[in-house]
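Design job #97: recover the sequence.
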C-alpha cells in the first residue's frame, strides 16, 4: 500500500498515464447548486419514479408493455397504448370494463375537441395515465370539475358499456337464430 495522502484541491495529482494534473479549488458557483440543477434533479427524480403494475382482472397479470417508470409512461407509443387498453378491457367494452377503479372505456377512441374526431396520442396517453391513477391526467371538463362532473362522466360511461354489451348480445342472438342472415 502506498503511504501517499490523497490529493487536496490545490495539490497536483497524476492520471493513469502518469501525466500531472492540476486540481483547481472549487469555485463558489460549483460549490452551491444552481436553480437549474435543482430543477433538473427534481425532474429526474420525478421521471424515475417507479410505477406499480396494474393487474388484469381476468388473467391476474400485468401487460409486458406496462411502464415501469413515469419516463417509460411518457415514451409509450400509440400501438402500445392500444394494446394496454385492450389488455385491461378499456378499448372494447366487456363485462370487466367497469371493474377497474378509474375506467376510461367509453372514451378511448374519442377525440377531445370535436365529437367525431379520433383520439390523438396525447389523449390516449392522458386517459391511460388517469386509468392507472397518475395525477394530472384528468379529462378537461367544461363544468366546475367537481364531484358532480365525475359522477356524470362515470354514469355516461356505464350507460355506454351497458348499451355496447346489449348490442353485442342482440347481434350474437340474431346470428345464432338466423335472423342476422336475412331469414326473417
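Job complete. Output follows.
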Amino acid at each position: 500500500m502506498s503511504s501517499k495522502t490523497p490529493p487536496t484541491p490545490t495539490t497536483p495529482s497524476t492520471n493513469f498515464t502518469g501525466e500531472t494534473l492540476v486540481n483547481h479549488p472549487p469555485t463558489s458557483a460549483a460549490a452551491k447548486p444552481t436553480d437549474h440543477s435543482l430543477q433538473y434533479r427534481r425532474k429526474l427524480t420525478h421521471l424515475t419514479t417507479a410505477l406499480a403494475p396494474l393487474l388484469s382482472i381476468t388473467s391476474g397479470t400485468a401487460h409486458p408493455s406496462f411502464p415501469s417508470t413515469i419516463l417509460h409512461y411518457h415514451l409509450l407509443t400509440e400501438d402500445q397504448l392500444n394494446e394496454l387498453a385492450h389488455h385491461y378491457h378499456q378499448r372494447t367494452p366487456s363485462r370487466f370494463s367497469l371493474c377497474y377503479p378509474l375506467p376510461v372505456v367509453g372514451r378511448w377512441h374519442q377525440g377531445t375537441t370535436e365529437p367525431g374526431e379520433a383520439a390523438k396520442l396525447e389523449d390516449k396517453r392522458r386517459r391511460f395515465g388517469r386509468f392507472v391513477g397518475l395525477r394530472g391526467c384528468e379529462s378537461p371538463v367544461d363544468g366546475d370539475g367537481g364531484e358532480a362532473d365525475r359522477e356524470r362522466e362515470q354514469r355516461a360511461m356505464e350507460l355506454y358499456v351497458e348499451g355496447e354489451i346489449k348490442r353485442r348480445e342482440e347481434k350474437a342472438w340474431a346470428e345464432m337464430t338466423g335472423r342476422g342472415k336475412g331469414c326473417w
